Structure formats: structure tokens, C-alpha cells
Amino acid sequence: MAMNKPFPTDVGILATYWKIAFVIVNLIDNNIRLKIHGFASQQAREDGAQPLQILDAVIDGEEFHQDMTIAQMYDFLTHNPGQFEGAVNTDA
What we know:
The protein is α+β, with helices and mostly antiparallel strands. It has one domain. It has 2 helices and 5 strands, in the order βββαβαβ. The protein has a 5-stranded antiparallel sheet. Strand 1 (2-8) and strand 2 (14-26) form a beta hairpin.
């Protein structure tokens, strides 16, 4: 899974393909911390390119549950206010 949404990056190149790269489930503080890697395209990622940008996200409060699937995490990111609101989920 991944998300498609264009964002300018710190290096001046537009990243359009975003993939959750790291998931940390914190059962003490009841949250999930995500590292999301941004690439110029899906093809760039598949070709082994380094991420153009790495963004952080946190799932906590009523949205948190310790057995969230990756698909549920993407749904959270695309359907809640924040950087990825309105992004399109993709199976790639």
C-alpha cells in the first residue's frame, strides 16, 4: 500500500508517492508513531531511490488501537486532518 499526493520537499523536488516505512506501537503511551517516506514516483521507489522526504505522523487518542493494520493506518492518514488528508490510497 501507499498514498499518492503531491508535496514539495526540502530538496525542491515534488514527491507524489508516499509509503509508510516504519511503525512503532507504543503500548505505554497508547499511540502509533509512523515514518512516511516520500518519493518522486512509485517507479522511483521500485528502482531503489532514496526518499526525498521523511515525514512523521502519530495515531493516538480514540483513533489508536494496538492491532491496527497497515491498511487502517493509511485510511487514518487520508481521512483525518493533516498532511495526507485527501491523498489517494493505492495498492502498490
